[in-house]
Amino acid sequence: MGLFDKIKHAFVKxxxxxxxxxxTTTQEEVTTETREEETVSTxxxxxxxxxxxxxxEEETDSFEPEDTQKKYEKGLTKTRKTFKDRMNELFxxxxxxxxxxxxxxxxxxxxxxxxxDTSMRIADELRQEVKIxxxxxxxxxxxTIIEKLVDLYEEEGEKEVNELNEQHNALSVFLFVGVxxxxxxxxxxxxxxxxxxxxxxxxxxxxxxxxxxxxxxxxEWGKRAEVEVVRxxxxxxxxxxxxxxxxxxxxxxxxVLLIDTAGRLQNKVNLMNELDKIKRVIKREDPSAPHEVLxxxxxxxxxxxxxxxxxxxxxxxxxxxxxxxxxxxxxxxIVLAIRNELHLPVKLVGLGEKIDDLEIFDPNDFVVxxxxxxxxxx
Length: 378
Ligand SMILES: Nc1nc2c(ncn2[C@@H]2O[C@H](COP(=O)(O)OP(=O)(O)OP(=O)(O)O)[C@@H](O)[C@H]2O)c(=O)[nH]1
Ligand SMILES: [Mg+2]
Hints:
Strand order of the largest sheet: 3-2-4-1-5-6-7-8
Helix content: 55-70%
Bound molecules: guanosine-5'-triphosphate, magnesium ion
Strand content: 5-15%
Structural class: alpha/beta
Number of helices: 15
Number of strands: 8
Oligomer: single chain
Order of helices and strands: HHHHHHHHEHEHEHEHEHEHEEH
Largest sheet: 8 strands, mixed
């Protein structure tokens, strides 16, 4: 099943569930009125077999923390609302699908941060599709826009690997890079905690020795996640901290080493030299490492995040992105632009400030979370 079909399926299921809830409520009211004492057993017996299974599933789910799909749906609330508002605006003055309309579609998509090239492509494909389908109803046109967005996203992601490159029975070394305040340290703390919960041995390296306070911040996360932190003094050579951390991780047969780096980009050449030196030290200790160079970008900065990613990609071998603060932004459309225009896989997403608010990126859960509520009944 294609991704768009999955979204359509989820949309139809939601609608059915809404209806069922309404019906069940009415049934319950009747039952309570007529046979008060038997309420519990009667309601169960009245519900058809397939619905009973669903109810049981829901009950089991509620014992788990919160499933990923729900987290995405919650985290993407603002983005979805923006998309919805923009779509409503687009169709508010809708008269016909003419050239003016297609231009408005382009503006709408650019405004929703899906990227310039993507917006142009979608509008072009829409022009053709509308002709083929002879679509006139706003609902059909809106669903076609979403279908095109999802299809393009799916197509561009065919060879993309979103899983982290974890080594089995050997040390995995992940280097975190990115400009100030994007969420490097926080994401490392959250990931450390996840691995620790899985029973893995984790070591953190405080290689951001540039900013006063940066080391303490990582040490603090180390305490929260209950993992070890290798540190030097403020101003010491980050590469030497990395060397110590590699040695320690190997000695202790750790599973994962997560390396925090400084985020300043005022002097791009210095920063890149520093990263190169860190990589050389890692490679000397383990030629297969680093297994990931993760660029952390802040989703709330939209186009700026795209530009940072372009710059870093030019100067260092970034293997994937960590997209933070998706919870606090209406710019979630940037995920589409990242895939379609940067061709860098998003590997992790930050959906909040709490220790368990980091998710392994699931592209399907993401688009379902974003677009499910935007489909229209035709
Ligand atoms: N809402 C939200 N806030 C986040 C998320 N990730 C990080 N933050 C917040 O972003 C701020 C900056 O995070 P840091 O982890 O310190 O960023 P950094 O990249 O290490 O910054 P520097 O060390 O200055 O380079 C903090 O206040 C975090 O709580 C997220 O997914 N959602
Ligand atoms: Mg930091």
